[in-house]
Give the backbone structure.
Amino acid sequence: MGLAPAAALPRRVAIVAGVRTPFARAGTVLKDLSAVELGKLAARELVFRSGIEPAAVDLICFGTVVPSVLEPNIAREVALMPLFPKGIQAWTVGRACASSNQAITDAADQIALGHADVAIAGGAESLSAVPILHSRKFADALVAASKAKTFGARLGAFANIRPRDFIPVTPAIAEPTTGETMGESAEKMAKINRIARADQDAFALASHVNAAAGTADGRLTAEIGPVYVPPKYGTIVTSDNGIRTDSSLEKLAALKPVFDRKYGSVTAGNASPLTDGGAAVLLMSEERAKDLGVTPLAYIRSYAYAALDPGEQLLQAPVLAAPVALRRAGLTLRDIDLVEMHEAFAAQVLSNLMGFESKEWAARAGLTTPVGAVDRSRLNVMGGSIAIGHPFGATGARITTTLVNELRRRDGQFGLMTVCAAGGLGFSMVVERAS
Amino acid sequence: MSAAFRLDRDGGVAIVTFDVPGAPVNTFSQAVIAEFDAVFADIEREAVVGTVGGVVIMSGKPDSFIAGADIDEFLTYTTAEMAQAASREGQSRFAMLERAHVPVVVAIHGACMGGGLELALACHYRIVSSHPKTVLALPETQLGLIPGLGGTQRLPRQVGLANALDMILGAKNIRARKALQMGLAKEMVHPAILRDIAIARARELATGTRSRPARNAGLPARLLEGNPLGRALVFGRARKAIAAKARGNYPSLPAAIDAVAAGYRSRDEGFATESQAFGRLAMTPEARQLINLFFATTAQKKDTGVAGGGPPPATIPRIAVLGTGFMGAGIAAVSAQAGVAVRFKDVSPEAVGRGLAAVRGVLHERYQRKQVTRQEFEGQLSLVAGATSYEGFQGVPLVVEAVFEDIAVKHAVLREVEPLLHADAIFATNTSTIPIAEIARAATRPERVIGMHFFSPVHRMPLLEVVVTPATSPQAITTAVAFGRRIGKTPVVVNDSPGFFVNRILAPYLNEAGRLVEEGVPIELIDRAMVDWGFPVGPITLLDEVGLDIAGKSGAIFGKAFGPRLTPSPVMERVLASGRLGRKNRRGFYLYDANGKRGGADASVYALAGRTGPAARVAAADIQERLSLAMINEAMRCLDEGVVRLPRDGDIAAIFGIGFPPFRGGPYRHVDAVGADALAHRLEVLNGRHAGRFEAAAGLARLAAGRRKVYGGEKIEDRR
């Protein structure tokens, strides 16, 4: 048994089930489904597989990063499926790539506080359908025209519009405060931490190899609810389409760096791809799970968020969050049987791992001893976001599901997960297998 | 003060609230109309002295305005003169309302049917609530009658001739928005403000700040119908349409047209024709049978499926459908329409995908017809979740199996799925040919195994046979019946026996059609004769539509189970062996072009009967007698054997499952109408000609000997 948690939640929160859609590279098989539709598919499959009575669900919390302007509260749209009664609380959260972790901890907090007993938490993202905006000047003209009372005034609203104002604005994945894109940040981290290109490629290859093995032996596909793509349902997606079985170090080495063509090391091969998908987990208070006769997969032992200056090392905050989560769990890395780290970039994971071993970073987290070296054989054993894909809002729920399922399969006790996020944010959670 | 009407006042406006005490809905009886008259006389007196300036009529029932006339009262009329007098009496009271000194506004929320709409038409200003339950209709022709309170006269003046004929002849339900569009209502408002707006309009009409609306037919209608020539065209079209559809079997339809037409000659003639026709029709056997059927279905709706009510049904928030073929998809679709979540499983993802596409097709059709909104359509679609594994079955209280019709396959899925389910979950099989007890043999809990025999296409066919074995638990029965009703079906409980009820009585009927082909009777002649008798399609057309392979398969089962009586004509076998499957492969008794459009009979079929072409000339009446008696006699055997529990159930099953002519009331009602002794005699004659096929059922012979009726001599059985 582990130590008593240092900062236990008032009530234990059980993770009962988790399921997701297949993750598909943006612009491919799931491109015609919106994030809301992907979220609905994940939640519906979760309800069927878990057998939970929809009326027993108290709240639904979903995360998304690029919300649709037309359906901004994705969680409420999910909750308004006729499958559910109308009285379920539902809200949508954003914490960049940790958004569905935020959804899970929001829901867990509500359960821990006694405000809820059963919750569905997850996230969804369609990176095939990102909103593309009119230029500000053209948008202003449209608004002015809609308010105009006469035809002449309506025409007049467009008088100052120039051809360049028709160029649409595509949102880039760039930090608003630094202007740096995510890839540029990863590139910078690779340089600061001296992460060799070969190490990044080797890590990416491992991600594909592990994910391919998990797909082949059914451990990964067991978490997937196949998607029958409407309206013809002729396209049936049963597994992730970004996992490569034919990847090799040579092939990866042949790819050109994307963000710094001259001195860079981050390529399309050692970064996570733009992806469509949805994922959801079912959470319950320990008591309710007992009442319903449900055997939980795991309990949430602790979690922590952290943040640092985005201009520094944008994706390094997991290094600050993990020691806090471990401390709150009353555990050290030695107690951890499995580690799941979100792979935005191989350079980021390797930088995070270096940080775990660094006294300097430990000091920044307020600790005297570092977290320690992660045993690579316990890390991302079924691959990670590089191979499986990374629908921003859904990744956290995917990792949670994989971690608790695999912990059970391996008969382990404790699992640690970390997720880095834009804005210099980091997340970490410790789960404990239910006995 | 009256019992059925409450009189309130708001300033100078009298508000008459119709609320028949102790009844779930308002209906008109002669007593109620007399009460209304008294209330109105009071109002008129006050109008003269000026204390009342306007009137509002509304209903005190939740979500229901007036359900129509009290149908029980029809049955008290013993002569046409009585019914006609009742109609004339009602007409004159509504005429007084129409001529009232003060403006009368009617506020319609909920169902406004028959006499209710006729009352509304006599008012000066109609407002409907924008509620899905607000529906206006004149459904009298469905009961073999016509509107008898001025509906045939006032409706055309409000909505135009073509619309009015459409509503009356088709018994069409008109929703609030449509009512507004076609001029049946002047305004449509939210139910919350219906009363206030009605009072305000009554006041405005009283003070003259608003004038009474004129008739409201659209311009094209006025151009066409405003002159006798145009009207003649519309009438001609309507007469032709009903002649083709009703084949003279529904006298109320031409009578309705006559009454409407008379109104264009003169007001008095119109009303007189209406009441006269109403009186005459009320005495017709067709109306009596249709009214019987109305009562039977009303009573049947309250039947739990178990004598004495039985245990309360389980709630079914979700089901699993095994098998995503045509039947499975139909079952999934109608369940989703009723808000039931469906786990939709088959072996291969491709089969599931095809099934989901079929489900979408059914649901989308209703969206395209604007019966549901896009949001409702998408919501319904979201309830059906495809799967190729049994994951998600553990919490499902009802599994409907619609897999391949093979006992080994049925046993395999039952053995697979039963251990996953709760102990009280129900396994329902949609088999049409395999005895339920035989399927249940593979179950560890045979008491939870039941038959739910849907008819194809599921989303159109109203009947559901709930098939029970001696082992089936009462709660499984009440649950299957309640669920069937919830998904919009008419469930009839039948006992497990080969072919259950509907296919069983269909078998000798179709066989007899096969014998006629064998004898060289022209295929079209057979079909036409039975359509003339009142069936929606002829027997040979039915064979082609159902599929000759399916018919052949069930024919063999009946032959095995019941011997020569139900052994199909050898011609049927030869037709099937010739590669004909019916419409599905565009080769059957009829010819089909490349697009599946049907042509005439395929003359080469006669060769399979050893003939060069159609030969025999059999009178239509003989065809009708042989086919109908084959079916009716088999239905009598089913009653003897207890396949159906009540004659009522058998009549409903035959009408809703096969399209047995509703105006004949069903096979058992037909026996009573014609007389068991007469039928037994005809059977004897036929059996002399076709030995073995027409031996009278024991029960029929008993009735004939005792000169008794199937329905126990009561006027209406099982009414409540």
Summary: Chain B is about 50% helix and 15% strand. The mean pLDDT of chain B is 93.
